């Protein structure tokens, strides 16, 4: 299991280690519950995700709330909920303090670096909308300390789907250097160092899987070096916030071929799944391996575009993809869709979303019912004047 592998890799080198699952990747309550049973906490980006985490049994003490551009209501609710508040901007602190002083607080630091498999996935660096720049972060912790905050954490989240193992210790070192300056200046002792997530998974056949054991050893060595050097005091928890790494390769998406259309220069394989079901190919140009169920996958006899039924020309799951012979009635399988699949799906074109099924030891359980047209309209109301 991905969770157990990741945890074992880090605990080997740094026993005081915790995992907070990034709920945004896959927010199904059963998925959150499985990871909670394994020992994971929750990384939440809004109050709705905090509610889901609690419904799945995650205690407030194991939830970190990292919003961005928060409303006053969100700040108040987060403070009242008892979760750890992680602020994305120093100027959010005075607004938070209007509702009370938290026992623990952290800031999301932008250490000036970022990485990702697509520009849209880079969430650190000078062009990122996220995080507190180094020049302001000391002021943030000073203000918090003067306001009566007693316990502190240090946080960053700078990339997504990173497959370069060298990136993580390098980014961690930058964060810890900033942390050392905060400690020297203010005497702040951090109870946790949260390096975020971003651990990548291979989507393309040529992608090399991330060596998480190598990453863990290098990151923990970096942390231990900074602790032994005296720049950071205490023995903080080392925390990570993976989402994709834990769930992406656990899930497949099955679609049915309705029609194969031949034009003068292209072949379109029309299915009952599309950008409404899996938007990553349209949004990021993301690659997902697709195979035809029951066909010899070595016999790649045709080049096709695999599309859904949405009224957009960008509704493509794959373009110019080599696949075996396919015809109406065949089933196609899209792999590695457990992260940012259903969680980014939509009901566009009034298309209900599919069911989700959990399979273990040959037993299948429905963990999300298939939607129907009544799910699309259940929150709608027609004023009486429009009924005549």
UniProtKB/TrEMBL annotation:
Binding of substrate, residues: 244, 280, 284, 312, 340
NCBIfam families (alphabetical): lysA (TIGR01048)
Protein's name in the database: Diaminopimelate decarboxylase
Keywords: Amino-acid biosynthesis, Decarboxylase, Lyase, Lysine biosynthesis, Pyridoxal phosphate
Positions annotated as active site in the UniProt record: 311
EC identifiers of the protein: 4.1.1.20
Reaction(s) this enzyme catalyzes, per UniProt: meso-2,6-diaminopimelate + H(+) = L-lysine + CO2
Residue span, Orn/DAP/Arg decarboxylase 2 N-terminal domain: 8-248
Protein residues bound to pyridoxal 5'-phosphate: 198, 241-244, 340
SUPFAM superfamilies, per database record: Alanine racemase C-terminal domain-like, PLP-binding barrel
Cofactor: pyridoxal 5'-phosphate
Record-stated family: Belongs to the Orn/Lys/Arg decarboxylase class-II family. LysA subfamily.
A single GO BP: lysine biosynthetic process via diaminopimelate
Keyword Lyase: yes
Broad enzyme group: lyase
A Pfam family of this chain: Orn_Arg_deC_N
Organism per entry: Candidatus Marsarchaeota G2 archaeon OSP_D
Quaternary structure (record): Homodimer.
GO molecular function: diaminopimelate decarboxylase activity; pyridoxal phosphate binding
In-chain residues carrying the UniProt-annotated modification N6-(pyridoxal phosphate)lysine: 24
Domain Orn/DAP/Arg decarboxylase 2 C-terminal: 249-338
């Amino acid at each position: 299991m991905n969770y157990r592998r990741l945890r074992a890799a880090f605990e080997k080198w740094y026993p005081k280690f915790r995992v907070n699952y990034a709920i945004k990747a896959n927010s199904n309550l059963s998925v959150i519950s499985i990871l909670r049973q394994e020992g994971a906490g929750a990384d939440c980006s809004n109050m709705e995700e905090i509610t889901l985490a609690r419904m799945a049994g995650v205690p407030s003490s194991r939830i970190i709330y990292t919003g961005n551009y928060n409303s006053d209501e969100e700040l108040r609710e987060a403070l009242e909920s008892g979760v750890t508040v992680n602020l994305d901007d120093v100027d959010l602190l005075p607004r938070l303090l209007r509702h009370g002083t938290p026992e623990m607080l952290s800031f999301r630091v932008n250490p000036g670096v970022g990485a990702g498999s697509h520009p849209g996935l880079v969430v650190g660096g000078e062009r990122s909308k996220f995080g507190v720049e180094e020049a302001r972060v000391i002021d943030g912790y000073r203000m918090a300390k003067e306001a009566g905050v007693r316990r502190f954490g240090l946080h960053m989240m700078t990339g997504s789907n990173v497959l370069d193992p060298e990136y993580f210790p390098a980014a961690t070192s930058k964060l810890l250097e900033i942390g050392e300056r905060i400690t020297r200046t203010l005497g702040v002792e951090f109870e946790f160092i949260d390096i975020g997530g971003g651990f990548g998974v291979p989507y393309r056949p040529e992608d090399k899987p991330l060596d998480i054991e190598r990453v863990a050893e290098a990151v923990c060595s970096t942390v231990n070096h900074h602790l032994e050097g005296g720049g950071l005091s205490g023995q903080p928890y080392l925390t990570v916030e993976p989402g994709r790494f834990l769930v992406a390769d656990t899930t497949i998406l099955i679609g049915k071929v309705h029609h194969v259309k031949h034009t003068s220069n292209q072949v379109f394989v029309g299915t009952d799944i599309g950008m409404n079901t899996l938007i990553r190919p349209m949004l990021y140009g993301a690659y997902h391996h697709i195979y035809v169920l029951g066909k010899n996958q070595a016999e790649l006899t045709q080049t096709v575009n695999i599309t859904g039924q949405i009224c957009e020309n960008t509704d493509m799951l794959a373009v110019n993809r080599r696949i075996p012979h396919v015809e109406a009635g065949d089933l196609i399988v899209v792999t590695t869709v457990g992260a940012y699949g259903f969680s980014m799906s939509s009901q566009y074109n009034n298309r209900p979303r599919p069911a989700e099924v959990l399979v273990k030891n040959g037993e299948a359980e429905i963990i999300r019912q298939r939607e129907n047209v009544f799910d699309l309209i259940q929150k709608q109301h027609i004023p009486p004047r429009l009924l005549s």
